[in-house]
């Protein structure tokens, strides 16, 4: 199993994952022993990020096979529960469906389903490692081009929203992959990190990742990005995504749409980085067809952090009788997206460009 998975690994046949709800204050792990553990880890955001969810879902099907004693119908039953764990990230459904297709073929020749499932889950993760490296290289070309236009000593300022690093997709992530590649090449960069309310994945995860790699960064409030763009302090926006339609509409963490609007108004390039498994070629209109997850109101009403006694706790920030609405994602229309950074190259966020580069993914 590849050492570059970083956020999860196998131990004695079980899947061990970093508990991302404890970061950045504690680096702790959870051991997933069965499909129910995998489902819960996805639902409670122990693991998150489109790619990471897909990986854990794939290994969840492997765990389902292990607990089903070779009964394919039982595996399918357990896999269906995993598939419903979260509604927006298409990698989840894609990974489960891919595993089940392989298992159905294996059952016809009486192969061991546990062995086959494990091999396929590892194959998906290995493909993601290669993919994130390619996303990094293609995206870094954009950063490198901007760097050549900057006065000597000035960094390329990149704004990102939510977390799309190796905690979200194995090895290098999607949105952070070009940043890691640029750092490796010695390009002078600085990252504006949106806090990403309400769960603060930017403050908790992106800032932690960049700190681990000693990449210069500054945490900002979610609503500061537009002002920074007006001041000319943002050269490039790169975000990840949980689903992209065949016409290029992008579902990503709530607040992405507003960043795209600000970028459009200030002529700042706005790129979306993704592996091809994040395309949903079955749908065209993101606003009408993508199911947006509505999460617990408590995520808005409370904030979690490190207390004075060094314990992790939460505090309520709204009156006791105040209701809250908590949509997890929003849709950025293709017209606001400068381009899509994929493992195959950079393409326009348009139906023709996507179909040309990803013809093999189109529905028959």
UniProtKB/TrEMBL annotation:
**Protein name, per record:** Methylthioribose-1-phosphate isomerase
Q: Which family does it belong to?
A: Belongs to the EIF-2B alpha/beta/delta subunits family. MtnA subfamily.
Name the source's superkingdom: Bacteria
Active site per the UniProt annotation:
242
Q: Which GO terms describe its molecular function?
A: S-methyl-5-thioribose-1-phosphate isomerase activity
Reaction it catalyzes: 5-(methylsulfanyl)-alpha-D-ribose 1-phosphate = 5-(methylsulfanyl)-D-ribulose 1-phosphate
- One GO term of the biological process aspect: L-methionine salvage from methylthioadenosine
- What class does this enzyme belong to in the EC scheme? isomerase
Alphabetized UniProt keyword annotations: Amino-acid biosynthesis, Isomerase, Methionine biosynthesis
Show which residues form the site (Transition state stabilizer).
162
Q: Which positions in this protein are listed as binding substrate? A: 48-50, 86, 201, 252-253
Return any one Pfam family short name.
IF-2B
Q: In which pathway does it act?
A: Amino-acid biosynthesis; L-methionine biosynthesis via salvage pathway; L-methionine from S-methyl-5-thio-alpha-D-ribose 1-phosphate: step 1/6
């Amino acid at each position: 199993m590849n050492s570059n998975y970083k956020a999860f690994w196998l131990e004695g046949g079980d899947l061990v994952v970093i508990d991302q709800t404890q970061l950045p204050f504690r680096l702790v792990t959870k051991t997933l022993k069965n499909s129910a553990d995998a489902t819960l880890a996805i639902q409670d955001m122990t693991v998150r990020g489109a790619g990471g969810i897909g990986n854990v879902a794939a290994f969840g099907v492997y765990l389902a096979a292990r607990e089903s004693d070779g009964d394919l119908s039982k595996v399918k039953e357990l896999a269906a529960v995993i598939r419903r764990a979260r509604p927006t990230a298409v990698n989840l459904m894609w990974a489960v469906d891919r595993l089940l297709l392989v298992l159905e073929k294996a059952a016809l020749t009486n192969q061991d389903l546990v062995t086959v499932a494990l091999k396929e889950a590892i194959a998906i993760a290995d493909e993601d490692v290669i993919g994130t490296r390619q996303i990094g290289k293609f995206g870094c070309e954009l950063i490198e081009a901007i760097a050549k236009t900057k006065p000597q000593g000035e960094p390329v300022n990149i704004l990102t929203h939510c977390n799309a690093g190796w905690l979200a997709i194995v090895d290098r992530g999607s949105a952070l992959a070009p940043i890691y590649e640029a750092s490796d090449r010695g390009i002078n960069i600085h990252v504006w990190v949106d806090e990403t309310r309400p769960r603060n994945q930017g403050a908790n995860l992106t800032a932690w990742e960049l700190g681990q790699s000693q990449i210069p960064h500054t945490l900002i409030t979610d609503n500061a990005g537009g002002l920074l763009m007006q001041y000319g302090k943002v050269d490039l926006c790169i975000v990840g995504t949980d689903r992209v339609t065949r016409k290029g509409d992008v579902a990503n963490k709530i607040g992405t749409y507003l960043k795209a609007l600000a970028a459009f108004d200030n002529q700042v390039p706005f790129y979306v980085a993704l592996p091809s498994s994040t395309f949903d070629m079955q749908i065209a209109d993101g606003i009408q067809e993508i199911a947006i997850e509505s999460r617990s109101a408590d995520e808005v009403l409370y904030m979690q952090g490190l207390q004075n006694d060094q314990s992790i706790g939460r505090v309520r920030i709204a009156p006791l009788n105040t209701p809250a609405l908590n949509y997890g994602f929003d849709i950025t229309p293709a017209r606001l997206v400068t381009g899509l950074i994929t493992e195959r190259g950079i393409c326009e966020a348009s139906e023709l460009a996507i179909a040309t580069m990803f013809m093999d993914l189109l529905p028959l």
